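User: Predict the structure for this protein chain, please.
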Amino acid sequence: MEQFDVIIIGAGPAGLTAAIYVQRAGLRALVLEEYVCGGQIANTPEVENYPAVTKISGVDLSMNLYNQAVEQGAQVLFEGVGSASLEGREKTVTTKSGHTYSAKAIIIANGAKRRKLGVPGEEELAGKGVSYCATCDGGFYKGKTTVVVGGGNTAVEDALYLANLCERVHIVHRRDAFRAGRVLTDA
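Assistant: Here is the predicted structure, written as structure tokens:
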């Protein structure tokens, strides 16, 4: 069983940044990622809200983070996590392929997963009019008419955010009442 100081689950911006800081602290980091480095940001055609970067593609930002983590000495393995034992001084993580690693600390930075509608054209138009993050991409829709799908907290929060940027915001959802908290629906 190979031992590290810190195991980081997830190679999105948070996980790779953690790896950079772990390595800079003189510790040994292992990053486990099931899919691709960068997380959801890797699917973003244009990032304009990352500090100190005027404009960059999500792929380039992801690769920059990955390269910096690796240059600092972090080990990144593209393996999914099957199980983890977080009890005691030594924590262990076993990958889906059966490899087991141990560390004194584990950082879980596994991000989020987009909830897609599954409607025709959604995949083809992602990043070209279809977006999944109002605070990330809202600036692209400034002065335009937009549609937010959903009636929960995230949808209503996004609609309220976009209302300050867009000419008009429509909310489409399948129920007769919002599921969002009252503090949002009363806003």
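The first helix runs from residue 13 to 24.
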